[in-house]
Description:
Elements: E1 2-3, H1 6-11, E2 17-23, H2 30-38, E3 48-54, H3 61-71, E4 77-82, H4 88-98, E5 103-106, E6 111-113, H5 117-127, E7 131-142, E8 167-168, E9 182-184, H6 185-193, H7 212-222, E10 226-239, H8 246-253, H9 257-271, H10 277-301, H11 305-324, H12 326-346
Parallel strand pairs: 2-3, 2-5, 3-4, 7-10
Antiparallel strand pairs: 1-4, 5-9, 6-10, 7-9, 8-10
Amino acid sequence: MQVGNDAKLRAWDNPGVSVIICCYNSSPRISETLKHLCLQKVNNSIAWEVIVVNNASSDNTSDVAAMAWQVNSGGANFRIVNQPKPGLSFARENGIEEAKFDIIIFCDDDNWLCDTYVETAYDVMTRDENIGIAGGWCEGDFERPISNWMIPFLPALAVGRPANKTSYLAAQGKFVNGAGMIIRKQHYRFIRENGFLSLLEDRKQNTLSSGGDTELCWAMMFAGREIYFDELLYFKHFIPPARFGKDYLLKLTLSSLYPVITLSIYSFVFRAFPARFVKFFLKEITLRIYSVFYFMPRMVFGKNPLYCSVVFRQNIKVIQLLISKFSNVKKDFNHITSLKQKLRKER
């Protein structure tokens, strides 16, 4: 499904921006997200498009999205494509393949981008060609005031900022969130062609497992590309009441146990030279045991007992996984180490 003048896009000489929105049963949320995209203030010299990837939805997401774009008079080219294979990573890959431009913005179906987001993304990525990934910061849009106990859980909902001010993050081993993430297609293709294949499936339909966004940032850093945070890249994350219930937040925090280990491997391998598995394993076990004893008394006497309880349980389970999945952890460690070596060699 397509709305807009495709011939006009092909006539642009300048690089442009492709906004990709991956959707699974997004009919309750997608209209407001597209409304904010229709309000973008984009210089006429910048070509841009919006691609909605319908990822195995069982509702009328496609119809609602098409109607919302027409009603709000979106000025960019607009397309809806289907990805029947469930999973955020598969949906994004499909969106990247469909994208006409080198600069790609991943906009979640509940992200309301500020009206200068597209133009700022273009400016950032054309100003420094070594930036592989850029991102901004997010403020939660809640339908009712949140309680104090919820505040420590907000980073799990991608609310907050990765740095205090506009800065390059790669040297610090820091990354940006997947929501609102901007990638350069040519750099993404480079890491894929040289061995990067996500070990983490990311969200799939009703499951909450994640980590693929951070994994992508690490791979870009292995390849010598920059990760950049810009304060002008701002958006709101609409969070309905169901997402700040205790059951949901507990499930969200405890849903990514093995990804925690995988991302710890990336972090260790990025900083270590040479990277030795035994050293990683002992360091990780020691860190998790320390965290268990650190959070144990804080479950009773701390300011955020629920959060401390969740982190305590998370570390216990990660220790169990490190031991029970020892062979898998070692295999992933060797894979990530090999990926780093290859990306550094080819860059």
